Amino acid sequence: MVKSYWSQFLRSHFRIKRSFSSSVSQVFGPPPRAPQRRVVVTGLGMVTPLGCGVETTWKRLVEGGCGIRALTPEDLKLDVLDRETQLHTFDQLTSKVAAMVPCGDNAGEFNEELWLNSKEHRSVARFIAYALCSTEEALKDANWIPTEKEKERTGVSIGAGIGSISDILNASQMVCEKHLRRLSPFFVPRILINMAAGHVSMKYGFKGPNHAAVTACATGAHSVGDAARMIQFGDADIMIAGGTESSIDALSIAGFCRLRALSTKRNSVPQEASRPFDCGRDGFVIGEGSGVMVLEELEHAQERGAKIYAEIRGYGLSGDAYHITQPHNDGRGAILAMTHALKQSGLHLDQVDYINAHATSTPLGDMIEANAIKSVFSDHATSGALALSSTKDLASGRTIGKGNMVNGLYVLDSDLKGAPQACQGTQARHILGVLLVIFLEQQEQWKQSLQC
């Protein structure tokens, strides 16, 4: 009886399913083709360990400046703990170097009173404040002052890797001390990654797509790539895109130390600690800051006479499905990402003349990345026509959520203003590599392509 019932039910179910599928194909035509829209960069904003602002950062970079310094107990954001516990925690950290944003009220410094300490910023954690600061600069640079209607076509895509761990640590201390009722009502809004994009949207009234990637070191690149696709697909005309991070605190540093990911051999010489592809590399230096670009549809930018820095031609993303921290020995993830980006860009291998490397400064990571580059670019990688480097050793260490983003901004500035000097940290180098995500063409070549 039961068997008979189920056989009747299944026959009825599949008849309905076949009927529905058939009717859908007859009633609905295919969706409209996605428009082929080109995406350009029209504004830049930065908060980095070299300083606050694109010009300040670039000036220090070309002068050979370095934003990496020795940590102190006060840098660990342990104000809720007694002094003895603070010092004990500091002593237990095996890595005692970091790249921190310079704070103060002087030119080129991050003004905490302006961005963090006012009453209206109680829901703003440091990583959010960095994003707000770099966004303000990028919008001014792009000269984008939209009307109410234009705000509906302006979106935000800003991600972070970790967020505000220090807020979580402070809140957990309240639990331990049985003072949970003192927890700030702004605790949750301060720790949510999406609130960086949310605060930018609320401050400027941008009603387009609001997006927040959380993909560790690839966050900044994914934020820009996803935003470019939103413009290409027609969801927006302008996207504020980038990454932000503020993870210089006791818990974050201790966690990376336990992973054996941080540099520990050069605590006494901080400026020599970050050394991507160097024979003596022993891990990355943790950093903080934010990098933001204004992305814009090409014709929209041309119609309003916007300054155009570059065009985004290709975006590739992948996973190697292998290990939580260690890349696969054959570099399959990086190879897939680069191959996808190249295919989408329409460029030939020999048309790529510079790669800015991810460069973790770990012994295994750098070697695998270099081999992935050689695998994709073959003879072009060793021909001398393909320049390869990493900007992490120049200035800012590894800023988890915004690292790719700031590297991209360094590349844009170097294209316009000339290459910077090398920081003193790096010595003998192996061949370099990169998780290649964004292709930016040379200005003159790009201008010529517009005539085609």
UniProtKB/TrEMBL annotation:
Gene3D superfamilies: 3.40.47.10. Keywords: Acyltransferase, Fatty acid biosynthesis, Fatty acid metabolism, Lipid biosynthesis, Lipid metabolism, Transferase. GO terms for molecular function: 3-oxoacyl-[acyl-carrier-protein] synthase activity. GO terms for biological process: fatty acid biosynthetic process. InterPro entries: 3-oxoacyl-ACP_synth-2, Beta-ketoacyl_synthase, Ketoacyl_synth_AS, Ketoacyl_synth_C, Ketoacyl_synth_N, PKS_Beta-ketoAc_synthase_dom, Thiolase-like. It comes from the Eukaryota. Pfam families: ketoacyl-synt, Ketoacyl-synt_C. The active site is at C217. Residues 36-452 form the Ketosynthase family 3 (KS3) domain. Belongs to the thiolase-like superfamily. Beta-ketoacyl-ACP synthases family. This is 3-oxoacyl-[acyl-carrier-protein] synthase. It comes from Nelumbo nucifera (Sacred lotus). The lineage of its organism: Eukaryota, Viridiplantae, Streptophyta, Embryophyta, Tracheophyta.
